Amino acid sequence: MSTTTDTLDIVVNGEPRRVPGPATLADLLAHLALDPRGVVVEHNRRIVRRPDLGSTALAAGDAVELVHFVGGG
Known about the structure:
Blueprint: E1 6-12, E2 15-21, H1 25-31, E3 39-43, E4 46-48, E5 63-68
Parallel strand pairs: 1-5
Antiparallel strand pairs: 1-2, 3-4, 3-5
């Protein structure tokens, strides 16, 4: 049995990026080693709530903006 992994060409924070597909936003965060609790995700100019990251599919050409929370004190 052969397994084929497709890739998706998307834009993340203004930079072209190729990621394994099919994928959701949660998959993208895992691929980038980002904790969803510390990131705000905008997908095609729409903020995506954390509970919806696993059900929001990525498609070729999508634009994703990731904003990281930075703690300090």
